[in-house]
Amino acid sequence: MRGIAHATLAAALVACGPRAVSPPEARVATPASVTLANPVGDAREPEDAALTRLLEAQASERTDRWQTVGMALADAANWRRIRVFGHPTRVAYRYGDDHLALDALEYRQADGADSPEACLQSFEDRALAVATTFGITFEPIVPSHGQHPRGVEAIDWSAMSRRRLALAGASSSAPTLAPDAPSGGPPGAPTSVAASGAAPSDGATRTSGEPPPRAPNVMPRALFGRSGGSLGFAPMPSVRSAADVVTFFRRQRYVGAVAAFQSWPGTCLVRAFAARVGTDEALGQRVVDHWLAELAPRTRWSTRLRRAPRFEDR
Which end of the chain is less enclosed by CB atoms within 10 A, N or C? Predict the structure, then answer.
C-alpha cells in the first residue's frame, strides 16, 4: 500500500501543469537576505530569481583548487566550490545549497582522438549512460558550434625555447663594431651616451665599443590576450538540452549545455552547466544562451603553465 501511495503521488506531481509565469517582483530578494547558501534570499520564486541573477549579474573568474584553470561565472561570489561524489571533476561549483545551478569542468586523458568534437561525444555518451541509470530522460539534444580564444595550451614551448637559444647564440657570435667618434673629440676617446646625443636606457654611462645591455626575455603580453590576439581561436562544439527529474515528492526541470575546448595534446577539457527552471521556461533558455555565448568561451588554462598539468580530480 505504501508503494502504491508513493507511485500515486509521483504520478500526480508529473501530471501537474506549469504554473503561470511569475511577475518581476517575485524574482527580487531583499539584499540583506542573500547568502552563499541561499543566493536568492527571500525571493518568492527562487528558481526564477536565480535565473534572473545568472542572466543579469556581472561575471568574473573562479578557479580550481590548484589554480591551474579558470572559468567565468555570473554572480561568481555566490557559487560554492564542491566535490561531486562518484563523478570526478577538475572543479565543480554549486549555486545555492538547494542546487539552483551547477557548473562543472572535466579534465581527463583523451580516450582516442583529442579533438574537441571527440571529447564532447565521449562526455555525452557517458552522461547519457548515467542518466539512464537514474531514469532521467533528456529532450532532443541540439548541437551547436562556437569558438573560444586559444591560450597557453596552443603554444609549442619547446620550439620557442630552441628559437630563443638559437637567437642568443647568433647574437653572442656577431662582431661588435665601435661607433665613429663624434666631432670635437679624437678617435678612440671615451664617449658618454650624453655626449652622443642619445638618452641612456639604463641611466649609466657607457664607453664606445661596449655592447648595450640585453633586453629582458619577457613574453609579449599580447600572446596571452583572451580576445584571440596572435593565437587566434579554436573550435568550441557544444550541445544543449532539457530534462525533468522526478522524485517521489517533487518534479524538477533543468536546462543546460555542455561545451568542449581545445586543450593540451592528448587531453580533454569539457565544461557542463545546468540550471533549474521555475515558472519561466523562456528565461531558462536565455540563461543557457548567455552561458554558451559569454561564459563558456571564458574557460582558460593559467598562463603560468608550460605543459599539461597532472590529472587531479575532486
Answer: N
